[in-house]
């Protein structure tokens, strides 16, 4: 069975998980409130890293989720975030830092155990909490368009020919065309490609640049 480390600054949460893992035959090798204490224990005990570290998003020692996940992954463990599901920005940080997945604290213990088993086997954790947290956070895939690029996209995606867009904004056609190229590149970079005008309209609607009915947004 896999080895598990629990890092949460709420002792009651750790105790509940310890009992559940014990019943499931999983070995909890460490239980503590900070990543630093886990790494210190690892160093002094001269033991291999836990297969899976169950980590709360926010600990009481002032560390960030990026710092914690990065340190744990660099140390050789897979990290499962165990936290509330209404923190999409923090979940995004955890994913970017290398976390293997997230399981909500409102999930059943069986779901938590399933998540640990999945990650311990080296498989991706694609559960509802993870997907909804990421999908609900626009910044996760924000293409970081400039104000001018948003203006060009708003007009172009809602039907204006590129030449008319350039005239409307008082810029050269080549400038408007360059903006569209940069917009497409930025969307590709965040994993949301938009090779056609229809795709660009879809991205503009997703990002609130264009209203859901395809009309230019007031914002």
Automatic annotation (TrEMBL):
**What is this protein called in UniProt?**
Response regulator
Residue ranges of the TM segments: none
Q: Taking every annotated instance into account, which residue ranges of this chain make up the domain Response regulatory?
A: 3-120
Concerning SUPFAM superfamilies, the annotation shows: C-terminal effector domain of the bipartite response regulators, CheY-like
Annotated PROSITE patterns: RESPONSE_REGULATORY
Q: Which positions bear 4-aspartylphosphate?
A: 56
**Entry keyword Transcription:** yes
Superkingdom field? Bacteria
**Protein keywords:** DNA-binding, Phosphoprotein, Sigma factor, Transcription, Transcription regulation
Q: Which Pfam families match?
A: Response_reg, Sigma70_r4_2
The family annotation for this protein states: Belongs to the sigma-70 factor family. ECF subfamily.
Known InterPro entries for this protein? CheY-like_superfamily, RNA_pol_sigma70_r4_t2, Sig_transdc_resp-reg_C-effctor, Sig_transdc_resp-reg_receiver, Tscrpt_reg_LuxR_C, WalR-like, WH-like_DNA-bd_sf
- Which SMART domains does this entry report, sorted A to Z? HTH_LUXR, REC
């Amino acid at each position: 069975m896999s080895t598990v480390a629990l890092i949460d600054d709420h002792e009651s949460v750790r105790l509940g998980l310890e009992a559940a893992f014990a019943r499931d035959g999983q070995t909890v090798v460490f239980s503590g409130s900070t990543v630093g204490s886990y790494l210190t224990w690892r160093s002094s005990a001269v033991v291999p890293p836990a297969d899976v570290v169950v980590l709360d998003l926010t600990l009481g020692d002032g560390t960030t989720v990026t710092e914690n996940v990065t340190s744990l992954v660099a140390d050789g463990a897979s990290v499962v975030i165990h936290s509330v599901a209404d923190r999409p920005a923090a979940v995004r940080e955890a994913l970017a830092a290398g976390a293997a997945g997230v399981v909500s604290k409102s999930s059943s213990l069986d779901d938590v155990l399933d998540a640990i088993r999945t990650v311990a086997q080296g498989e991706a954790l694609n559960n509802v909490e993870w997907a909804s947290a990421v999908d609900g956070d626009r910044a996760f895939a924000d293409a970081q368009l400039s104000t001018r690029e948003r203006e060009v996209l708003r007009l172009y995606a809602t039907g204006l020919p590129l030449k008319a867009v350039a005239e409307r904004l008082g810029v050269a056609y080549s400038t408007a065309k360059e903006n569209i190229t940069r917009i497409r590149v930025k969307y590709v970079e965040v994993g949301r490609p938009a090779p056609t005008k229809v795709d660009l309209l879809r991205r503009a609607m997703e990002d609130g640049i264009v209203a859901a009915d395809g009309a230019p947004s007031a914002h």
